Amino acid sequence: MAKRVSVDRWLFTVTMLLVFLGLVMVFSASAVMARERFGSPYAFLSKQLIWAVAGLVAMVVTMQLDYKRYKHPALVFSFMGVTTLMLISVFFLDRSHNTHRWIHAGGFSFQPSELAKPVLILFLAYFLESRSKTMDDVRNTLLPAAAPVLVFLGLIVAQPDLGTAIACAGIAACILYVAGMRMRYFGYAFAASLLPLYFLIFHVKFRRDRIFAFLNPYADRQKAGFHIIQSLIAVGTGGVTGTGLMEGKQKLFYLPEPHTDFIFAVTAEELGLVGAMFVVVLFTIFLWRGMRASWRTEDLFGRYLAVGITSMVVLQALINISVVLGMMPTKGIPLPLVSYGGSSLFVTLACIGVLLNITKQAE
Length: 363
What we know:
Blueprint: H1 9-38, H2 43-64, H3 73-89, E1 103-105, E2 108-110, H4 112-129, H5 138-157, H6 162-179, H7 183-202, H8 205-215, H9 226-238, H10 263-296, H11 300-324, H12 342-361
């Protein structure tokens, strides 16, 4: 079969639709809040638009670059080193929202943990490409592959950001599974993680409260359960067709973070079941086309990159939507391409450009 002469149009179209929908919903969810805080309803939209344009430019650039150029040890380990330094440097900067997650520069801010996701994908794709036949070798394959992942997870958890760390672990697991790691090793890893997770969740008050709120949000309506209750009210209010764009009520100082973590709730309220299902269908198509690209790519490096990027987008979408619907405890995971957040949007679009280049070269 001849190689494609253009990128996957389905994947490109889905990406553009999600970015456009995100800009619309960020404005709808943040306009009133932005006017109260900054005197302009366009405060959040303008920043998101700048990042969207920058991200689309990055996507076009990476879409044109041969993805095999990233398969160079100097590049891979330089990215690893820079990302590690950035993850460490945030601990020496001012705290923001009681966390050490941000690097601020002028009027903009950047989350190094967002960069950690694609860097882990790049490292694992590079490292595992030549070891597909030695995935049972614990000393020479599995431990060297797991070590950088564990370092990144430890630094991200310490920020603290357990949700992003879990997302990174899920992405790594997807790549390792496709690379041929046996299920028993996943079982060992899961068993080894139980004790640390127990202490990270049940010995940290705000995480413990989130677990109890997830189990019974109405036991503490005004505090721990407030997020989930308001989110479910927003989703239920939307009905089938929604209250109409800009007409939602829960975003008016009831729903916390309506333009970031809970933007899907605003979408469900204003666009109804139809709009919510449209978003779900877009991410389902993204999963289909991304995995299709990985299946059709004979180059293992490209296959692992495609799996990693696809899982990065889809896993975060699954977590975010599950939280909004009360199916998971509250986590600070954005809805990719839709939620407000410049670093997430920029990095995601740049990565999708790499995925589009892989689709261009897939058989």
